[in-house]
Amino acid sequence: MTDSRAAFGQVLEAASFAARVHHGQLRKDRATPYVSHVFRVCLIVRDVFGFTDPRMMMAALLHDTIEDTTTDFDDLQERFGSEVAAWVAYLTKDMRLPEEVREHAYIEGLLKAPWQVQVCKLADIFDNLLDMAHLAAETRARSIGRAETYFAALRGLPAPEVQRPLALVEQALADVKHARV
User: Fold this and answer.
1) In a designed cystine with 97, which of 33, 41, 101, 174 is the match (CB 3.0 to 4.6 A)?
2) Where exactly are the structural domains of the chain?
3) Is-contact 83 56, C-beta < 8 A?
4) Coil, strand, or helix at residue 150?
5) Which of 3, 29, 47, 67 is an active site residue?
């Protein structure tokens, strides 16, 4: 099997794994299966932002597994390798910490992460912005505030690869804020 076919097989395995571990979880609308979010984030990385790196697609698919399921770093490392597991760890908040400390540590980690991880986070923000029309006003406001906080932190990233995703997220954020008025 060629390297590209093997890598694509790993992406498919990550999609299957994400579907299994997120089984039964729902989005904030209480109707949509949660796994649709990670699939959408992967598609945004590939089809909107234009990155076909299988490692990025796997990180996108797996980005909420440590935080929101019983999956741990070792599970991911064993199944998908050290690099993908490390990228997912950058995208994971330490839920043991108080919220303010947790958010600060999370943002600091994202700023130190490889640009590929930062693109995955921008895809996560982008999807959350696109998917908030059905939310109650209070939940929507909180989600927009969080997106603004992450975007403000990531806005100054120097990697040229991150510039287009940043511009797309900025536009999505402006569109969502304008629609609120």
Assistant:
1) 101
2) 3-180
3) no
4) helix
5) 67
Task: Write the pLDDT tens digit of every residue in 40-63.
Answer: 999 999 999 999 999 999 999 999
Question: What percentage of the chain has pLDDT greater than the value 90?
Answer: 85
- The pLDDT, as a whole number, for residue 60 is 98
pLDDT digits (tens, 9 = 90+) for 7-26: 789 999 999 999 999 999 99
Angle between helices 54-62 and 115-130 (to 10 degrees): 50
Class of domain 3-180: mainly alpha
Question: What would the two tokens of residue 46 be?
Answer: 């590939």
Question: Is there a contact between 65 and 88 (Cβ–Cβ < 8 Å)?
Answer: yes
Neighbours of 136 (CB within 10 A): 11
Residue 72 among the catalytic residues: no
The Cα–Cα gap between 21 and 63 comes to 12
**3-class SS of residue 12:** helix
Q: Which sign does the torsion angle of CA 96, 87, 170, 37 carry? A: negative
Q: Which of 68, 75, 83, 131 is catalytic?
A: 68
Report yes or no: 120 and 63 within 8 Å, Cβ to Cβ: yes
Q: How many CB atoms lie within 10 A of CB 71?
A: 21
Q: What is the pLDDT of residues 93-118, one digit of tens each?
A: 999 999 999 999 999 999 999 999 99
